[in-house]
User: Fold this.
Amino acid sequence: MITTMDQIFVLLQHWIVGFLPAFVQPFAAVLLSVVVIICLFPALFALAVWMERKGLGRMQNRLGPNRVGPFGLLQPIADGIKSLTKEDIVPLSADTPVHFLAPLLLVVAAFMGFAVLPMGRNMVLVDMDAGLLFFFAMGASTEVSVFMAGWSSRNKYSLLGAMRAVAQMISYEVVLLLSSVAVVMISGSMSLTKIVEAQNHYTWGMPHWYIFTPWGLAGFVMYAIAATAETNRSPFDLPEGESELVAGYHTEYSGFKFALFFLGEYLAMFSISGLGTTLFLGGWSAPFAFLEWVPSWIWFFSKLMMSIFVFIWMRGTLPRLRQDQLMNFAWKFVLPFTLLNLMVTALWRFMGEGWERWVVCSAILAVVWVVMGRVEMRSEHFGPRSYRYAE
Amino acid sequence: MLGEGILKGMAETARNFVGSFVSKERLTTVEYPEERIAAIENARVFPFLVYDTADWEAGLRCVACQICEKECPPKCIFIDKSKDKKPDAIGKQQFYPTRFDIDISVCMSCQICVEVCPFEAIKMDNEFELATDDRFGGLLLDRKQLAKPNEYYHQIHPTEAAAVDARLAEEKVKADAKAMGAADAAAAKAAAVLAAKPEGAGD
Assistant:
């Protein structure tokens, strides 16, 4: 029974595909999974938007949406209908084909990431050997669509937003990759299913998730920072920066194309949270050995939604950074610390089992964290400005 | 910069998040159409015309002097003065407005009409639910829509209305005294005229 519940979707897929002739079965199986992913994540998107608006409201002592349906739960449907019925305005001087393609590409690229994410035991669309690499390749192509959107709009705010987005995403992409390299170094595989398997065993009822190691914790923190920047979420939401840039790269989009950008942003959040879950939080494995009877996909999606909640929590807490602070933070703090974390991971790997490696690795990371935080990120004190006039 | 500020901030938002479910005083939202809070006494939206007697048309305090029409900065008051005179609430012969319109789409709620009115005839209302689907006719209020009884004025601005009533009563006493004096003088004059007449003037 427990195995049936755990494998319910896999069994269901086999059962449906079983009705078809043998030669179309592989295609049908893939098609079915794709359809499920394409339906499931937009549904989660609707839920996340509701969660975000309610959660942010509560954090600001407001009620949040509560008019459409019970607790405002049907609000996303109302929003969807609204965006579908709105006029699709394309600027006269816009580069029309590029302007049209940008939101589509964004959503497609965001969906591609889900192909390699293991969402439960045996629940992965394509079990690629280099799944991690594929994921980052797809994640990087969202930058192209963001820049396409900004460039083709022929609007200074769009272009500025797109420039910021590209600068920011490229800077943090490096960190994102390097922080996950640590996981690859320990697990010895780029396949996401193998990475989950490597974390899915228990000592004294506690899991061997990578976040419960010094290098894993440091890597996870760096990954979380980079993921927030990569998905353009607050406090790194400079590309949108509504107080400065109207809406950044999607200023000139309205109606359903805007909704696609919105969807793309959330899909990116889902996929990057899903990858973070897979790499550091044990993917679909249970947090305690005695909870292993709960179906694996429940664990994956609850971890995913927890990460989304943390994203929302951060957004409710932090103000937006300035562009120079963002870049300084990326290149002077996050990147060096991630590189150091790679060294510490190597040390961890070669010190062998025992308590010594825990002490040494934790000490190195803690000391460097404090020193770099105090020295590198020291806030520069500016005196009063002096002006020199032209003579 | 070690991230402790971020943690502190997140603790604060978490406190708000949980607190808004527990404590009522954190959640200050008034869910407007269902819940309302009473308007404060000095709240003002658009002007209305005060009337005294049961019949709104006869009891209007306005005498169509047109001062407010001239003073109105955005020129949103339109008055047509009557040709004839009618007795007002205290029985004095006065002109009256045959038309008194206020275009509330233009009105800026400055209250200057109220300040300049010598007859306490125009006051500020606190009715704000004036949305209409007819943006021209629906927002041009005529004198029937504008006329509201003095009791209503007492209800929305009690202090101010009491002061106005006291002042009006005082003026009425003064006017009565003056009228009485005038009547007395007329009577005396008539008596004097009568007395001055020679006794034998009659047949």
About this structure: The longest strand of chain B covers residues 97-103.
